[in-house]
């Protein structure tokens, strides 16, 4: 709401700003409409379940799709980083032997690459020993990702 | 910068995800995680990975679920801050911006930006346009499935009026008194001892008859010896054997003249005379076989009353060559009637003798065949 008050105070600059806002509104509504065509990989039912669990209440399907797309983008980014890590490691091995490269052509998602990629998003993965039987994060995440 | 560094380290500590290898999960949670696993695997595949480590996939799917939950929580908290319970698109965008701050988003530094112009949203819009659309692999049912509970019907639905005035009739009804109070039980069935006895006797007789017929059948099937000389009335057999399980040789002896027995001349080797107990029992035993030979293989177990003819005509039958042994035996028996050799069949109930005689007959038959063949 600060943005609108500032824009109103600008007087002559209102018109283009208002128009800009209208454009933005239009863009947003267009985007939301386009979301209905786009089927995110994460199914709607799953997203609805977890959102309902966390208190998110909205009957609109587009918002559910928006959340699904946001999560998908996040995971895709993490996976891309991990892939880069994996490729970087493989390229380091090339100079040793050609045969090894042939074998390692398969790109495998490993914990090491994943933890490195997640480090960039400030998520640390710690392995707890087997002695602790009860899971500590069954339903509620311990951690906020902020 | 030091402050920033401290903050960062604080944030790092917060974002620790503990992964426990031994985890017991339950219910809809497990299902949700499984589906998340599949979705995440699909995303990674589209990015370029060819295979995954199980632990890596699990942790990444867990992170995805957490992201989802946290986004929902953030959005709902923003909505609550604005005095609403239902969430808005703006709440979601603000949540996304919060998460986007971790990685850095274009335009994040501008404090008074309109939400619509947020960089996070723009990133997502670009992503939607550029990225390939990969729908989820399988159809997912609506979950968690809410099972419709069977509700206790109310007083109104039962058609009852509650006993006490203060209870409204739309409340669930009380359970029936027999569920919590012991009530006497009456035996409704009326017993008729006489009818029971009659029924019992009838069933016993039925069982006797069936056992008898079974025995007859067994004897008939096991016995190849055929004779048409004598026929026995079957009801006499019934009288003789009130209990089918009893040894027929131990049955009560008949009085002389009680039974119509054909005048057969028994050889002296037979101990018991015509009126003897064993002899009669033998005759009885062979009676069904005789009947079968006479009438054909159809009926052997029914009560057939036959009167013995006083005079037995000597029947000469001609049989063609190549007949079954059975037929030949009959023929020979008939021919030998006059000589009275048939009686010997009854007398000698020796199996070995039987076989010996059969062998002799076969030999004779073959001899005759040869003779007839030579004639041709």
Topology (elements, then pairings):
The complex is a heterodimer of chains A (146) and B (376).
Chain A: H1 2-9, H2 14-37, H3 44-53, H4 61-93, H5 98-103, E1 108-109, H6 111-120, E2 124-127
Helix pairs in contact in A: 2-4, 3-4, 4-6
Chain B: H1 2-14, E1 16-19, H2 27-47, E2 51-52, H3 54-81, H4 89-103, H5 119-130, H6 155-158, H7 193-222, H8 234-240, H9 277-295, H10 325-335, H11 342-347, H12 351-375
Helix pairs in contact in B: 2-3, 3-4, 7-9, 10-12
Describe this structure in words.
The complex is a heterodimer of chains A (146) and B (376). Chain A has helices at residues 2-9, 14-37, 44-53, 61-93, 98-103, 111-120; strands at residues 108-109, 124-127. Chain A has 146 residues and is mainly alpha-helical. The model of chain A is unreliable at 3-14 and 131-146 (pLDDT under 50). Among the domains of chain B are: 27-128, Histone, subunit A (Orthogonal Bundle); 149-180, no CATH class. Chain B has twelve helices and two strands; from the N terminus they run H-E-H-E-H-H-H-H-H-H-H-H-H-H. The relative contact order of chain B is 0.05. The model of chain B is unreliable at 1-14, 227-241, 271-279, 296-305 and 340-345 (pLDDT under 50). At the A-B interface, helix 1, helix 2, helix 3, helix 4 and strand 1 of A face helix 1, strand 1, helix 2, strand 2 and helix 3 of B. Strand 1 of chain A pairs parallel with strand 2 of chain B.
């Amino acid at each position: 709401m600060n943005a609108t008050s500032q824009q109103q105070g600008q007087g002559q600059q209102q018109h283009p700003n208002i128009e800009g806002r209208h454009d933005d509104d239009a863009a947003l509504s267009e985007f939301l409409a386009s979301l209905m065509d786009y089927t995110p990989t994460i199914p709607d039912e799953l997203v609805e379940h977890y959102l309902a669990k966390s208190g998110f209440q909205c009957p609109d399907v587009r918002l559910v799709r928006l959340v699904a797309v946001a999560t998908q983008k996040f995971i895709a980014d993490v996976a891309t980083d991990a892939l880069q890590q994996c490729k970087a490691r493989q390229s380091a091995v090339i100079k040793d032997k050609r045969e090894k490269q042939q074998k390692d052509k398969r790109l495998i998602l490993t914990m090491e690459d994943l933890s490195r990629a997640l480090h960039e998003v400030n998520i640390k993965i710690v392995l707890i020993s087997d002695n602790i039987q009860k899971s500590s994060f069954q339903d509620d995440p311990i951690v906020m990702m902020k | 910068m030091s402050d920033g560094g401290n903050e960062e380290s604080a944030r790092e500590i917060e974002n620790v995800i503990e992964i426990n290898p031994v985890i017991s999960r339950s219910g809809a949670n497990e299902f949700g995680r499984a589906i998340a696993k599949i979705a995440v695997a699909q995303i990674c595949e589209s990015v370029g990975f060819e295979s995954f480590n199980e632990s890596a996939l699990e942790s990444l799917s867990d992170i995805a679920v957490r992201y989802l939950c946290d986004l929902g929580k953030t959005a709902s908290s923003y909505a609550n801050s604005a005095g609403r319970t239902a969430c808005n698109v703006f709440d979601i965008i603000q949540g996304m911006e919060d998460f986007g701050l971790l990685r850095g988003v274009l335009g994040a530094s501008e404090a008074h930006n309109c939400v619509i112009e947020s960089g996070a949203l723009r990133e997502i819009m670009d992503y939607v346009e550029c990225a390939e659309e990969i729908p989820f692999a399988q159809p997912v049912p609506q979950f968690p499935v809410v099972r419709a509970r069977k509700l206790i019907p109310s007083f109104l639905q039962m058609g009852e009026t509650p006993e006490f005035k203060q209870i409204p009739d739309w409340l669930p009804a009380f359970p029936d008194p027999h569920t919590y109070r012991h009530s006497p039980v009456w035996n409704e069935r009326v017993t008729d001892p006489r009818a029971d006895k009659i029924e019992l006797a009838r069933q016993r007789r039925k069982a006797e008859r069936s056992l008898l017929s079974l025995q007859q059948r067994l004897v008939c099937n096991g016995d190849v010896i055929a004779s048409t000389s004598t026929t026995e009335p079957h009801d006499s057999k019934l009288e003789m054997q009130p209990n089918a399980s009893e040894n027929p040789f131990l049955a009560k002896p008949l009085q002389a003249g009680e039974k119509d027995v054909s005048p057969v001349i028994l050889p002296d080797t037979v101990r018991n005379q015509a009126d003897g107990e064993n002899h009669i029992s033998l005759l009885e035993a062979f009676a069904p076989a005789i009947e079968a030979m006479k009438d054909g293989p159809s009926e052997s177990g029914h009560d057939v009353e036959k009167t013995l003819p006083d005079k037995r005509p000597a029947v000469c039958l001609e049989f063609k060559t190549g007949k079954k042994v059975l037929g030949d035996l009959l023929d020979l028996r008939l021919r030998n009637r006059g000589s009275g050799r048939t009686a010997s069949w009854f007398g000698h109930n020796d199996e070995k003798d039987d076989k010996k005689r059969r062998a002799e007959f076969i030999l004779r038959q073959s001899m005759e065949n040869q003779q007839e063949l030579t004639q041709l």
